[in-house]
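Researcher: Good morning. I'm working through a list of sequences from a screen, and I'd like to move beyond sequence-only analysis. For each chain I'm collecting a predicted structure so we can compare shapes side by side. This is the next one on the list. No need for commentary yet; just the structure.
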Amino acid sequence: MLNRTQAPEFKTIDSIAIQQAQSFTLDNGIHVHTIDAGSQELTRIEFVFKAGMYYQDTPLVASAACALIENGTKKYSANQLSDSIDFYGSFFETSVSQDFSSLALFSLNKHLESTLVFIEELIKNAIYPQEEINTYLTNKKQKFLVGSQKVDVLARRKYSELIFGSTHPYGIEVKAEDHDATKRDSIVNFFKKYYTHSNCIIIVAGKLPANLHQVLNNHFGKDKWGTATNINKAYIPAQTTTQNIHYIEKPDAVQSAIRMGRRLFNKTHPDYFAFQVLNTIFGGYFGSRLMANIREDKGYTYGIGSGLASLVHDGYFFISTEVGADVTKNALEEIYKEIEIMQNDLVSDDELETVKNYILGQFLRTVEGPFALADKFKGIWEFGLNYSYYGNYFNAVKSVTSQQIRDLSGKYLQKKDLIELVVGKK
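Model: Good morning. Structure tokens for this chain:
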């Protein structure tokens, strides 16, 4: 009989096995990467393009090109596309990041070929009607203006500019007037340049149909659609601010947003794995030191966290929170205090072991199911890495020491290197 008065035995994670993607190439050279897993007759097909904000010449163009791609083609109106995809019980979504855009179709296998007719049409022949652009930009501007009244939104926007510079693709801060200045020609030209067969990979996950190769080849591999261009935009160096302290006053703010950190590195850097352990201890999960001090002990905030953002061409570390306007100064002092402790004291064996198992446990939860496995492949493909990355990650997390954590804290969290931004009252 189960003894509920006794805690279950604590077990460590000794190894991680990840199902790897298989690959093939369509007739026109498009690389297809597949994860054949799952028990449901459901497939996700994701078309990935180097068409994120890094590649746009003016603000909003990349996001508009991605978001509006399903709003009309040479053959079908926006309503016809939407109704036809819905008719087959399928779902289509778009997303854009700093570096990539993604078009993803979720479809029952029995309707996959029928649905792909419409996906092929919008990927190859989107026309971007002016009225749809007007509606999109009007709505986006309204959301922008609403967000501009919120201290956390203002802090997030400004922080990117401070880290990378006001003219860097990662740092350009969108302004209200940019919504009025965005023209259809810019969106259409961006689509024609970047949504092409030569700038596309396809990632497929689910219980894959036996004729997948043939189906994809029929719709996307027979011809060289779009202008064949080699998308290799030159690296643009960041122009990080040399000023450490920044303040944007909001006299009527009840809370102040704090954003602190520095430009750092992405997941290709040799210190990335160990720094992830450092970050988790410091502010990367609910049991972190920042949460224990500033939320649980001091009661200054509902939540505080830190993270390491990994972009293809760069990366940065950040600490983020909103605190009562009257305790902003105190909160800043406590953040710096926790940094000093990380730099001066060794992490205890118990805390380090708890965090290691938390990280590896979280990792295990992100490799369950075909879509999650496909996301794991995408996470290494974007950076030109292979599956050895995950083995190295596992080994690095398991082997990191308290001394390494302290050394990394001293190396990367020096106060003189940190950018401090407060929006609200200080």
